[in-house]
Design a protein that fits this description.
Structural class: alpha/beta
Low-confidence stretches: 2-39, 97-114, 254-264
Radius of gyration: 22 Å
Mean pLDDT: 80
Distance between the termini: 31 Å
Largest sheet: 5 strands, mixed
Order of helices and strands: HEHHEHHEEHEEEHEEEHEEHE
Number of helices: 9
Length: 393
């Protein structure tokens, strides 16, 4: 899977809107003209015209800000991601938010803003599994000549898994139940292995040699699906020359070295013996980004579990869906995109706003309570209790 630069911009706007919309406070009426002019300097964060923002919430926030209303910023301005918006956040925090608004004036004080990441992902710890159970195993892997960044990346990888698990559970909560990724833990914490592979940083590798090197080191268990942060460059996403931000290697499902789907993807029977219900597969994350990496992780991991089947109602082919626009076009479904030119996307969940979905309308790959006779009631369904890698409650 390749995420374009526009995804980062889109997500940055999403984060800014979500955080800022928590509290809008009116400016003091006696603010000087000079201060007013300074406030309007947005450092290039907002577009020239608020009408360019595609969603109503973002558009309204932009208009309010430009009209002179003060917004609540996160404690850590780095959460808004883009350099221009970080500058604006830092300026606003330093110059505008020093004076608390008195409750005696009838205006509530500025609320404590939760972590933006938690707000978006509904962060939740996964279900810890032992070696005897089917589970995911987190791995930090690097080329032999690369610096060891395990101490930096391992905590992030644990966080991304918790973020991804939050998205999964938020979807299950729509059915008044819980669903968690089953991940191997040690002493109650997600286990992250530190693995050095006999590859060089200068090698122009795609997912095949990385997966093969991991298999040679014994990562071949049929009980385990491997979640791998590759601390190097991986090519072959979108084209041979394109760099990946995430990729998937599904044993015996994808042709070696390509993203081409084999006929086995058409084996979408609702059975515990479904080929996607066993391990030995790899979900690669190549990007270190607090916002994007959890989405990439869940996207690639869902591929190893069989999302999205070719016969699904809204299949776009190549394991994706088309009932929502791609993420770079502000789509809600984390599995919707297409590697096939000319794919036409619908917009089936526009009412969701910025909420990320693990299957818009729950009709293609995840539904814990499918309607009798529906596709997911009779075909491979990640929401089925037959799925060995999710824990349902």
């Amino acid at each position: 899977m390749k995420w374009s630069g526009s995804v980062v911009i889109t997500v940055a706007v999403i984060m800014l809107v979500l955080v800022s919309s928590c509290s809008l406070l009116k400016k003091s009426s006696d603010r000087s003209a000079e201060t007013e002019t300074a406030v309007r300097d947005d450092f290039g964060c907002w577009p020239p015209s608020c009408s360019l923002i595609p969603n109503e919430l973002g558009k309204a926030l932009c208009q309010d800000w430009k009209a002179g209303k003060e917004v609540a910023w996160p404690a850590d301005c780095s959460y808004v991601q883009t350099e221009n918006c970080i500058k604006l956040c830092e300026y606003e925090t330093k110059n505008k938010n020093k004076t608390a608004v008195s409750t005696s004036a009838g205006i509530p004080t500025m609320p404590t803003i939760p972590s933006t990441i938690d707000f978006i992902f509904h962060t939740r710890s996964p279900a810890c599994a032992d070696q005897s159970d089917y589970h995911g195993q987190a791995i930090y892997a690097r080329p032999a000549d690369a610096s060891d960044r395990y101490e930096t990346i391992a905590p992030k990888l644990k966080q991304w898994i918790a973020n991804a698990n939050g998205l999964l559970n938020a979807e299950a909560s729509r059915f008044d139940m819980t669903a968690d990724l089953k991940i191997f833990c040690e002493q109650g914490e997600i286990s992250v292995l530190n693995v050095v592979l006999p590859l060089k940083s200068a090698d122009k590798v795609d997912k095949q040699p990385v997966a093969a090197a991991l298999q040679e080191q014994g990562f071949t268990s049929e009980h385990v699906k491997y979640i791998v942060y590759w601390d190097g460059t991986m090519y072959g996403c979108g084209s041979d020359e394109a760099k990946c931000t995430g990729a998937v290697w599904v044993n015996e499902v994808y042709e070696p070295g390509t993203a081409a789907v084999r006929e086995i993807l058409s084996d979408d029977g609702l059975s515990e013996d479904n080929p996607f219900n066993r391990g030995g597969d790899f979900a690669f994350v190549v990007k270190d980004d607090a916002m994007l990496s959890p989405i990439i992780l869940l996207h690639e991991y869902a591929h190893t579990l069989g999302a999205v089947q070719l016969k699904a109602p809204n299949s776009a082919g190549e394991g994706h869906c088309k009932d929502e626009p791609p993420a770079e076009e502000s789509g809600n479904d984390i599995m919707c995109k297409s590697d096939l030119p000319g794919t036409e996307f619908s917009d089936s969940c526009p009412e969701e706003g910025f909420q990320l979905r693990f299957d818009c309308n729950n009709d293609d790959y995840f539904n814990p309570q499918p309607e009798p006779g529906s596709y997911l009631a009779t075909h491979w369904n990640l929401g089925s209790p037959l799925n060995r890698y999710f824990k349902f409650g």
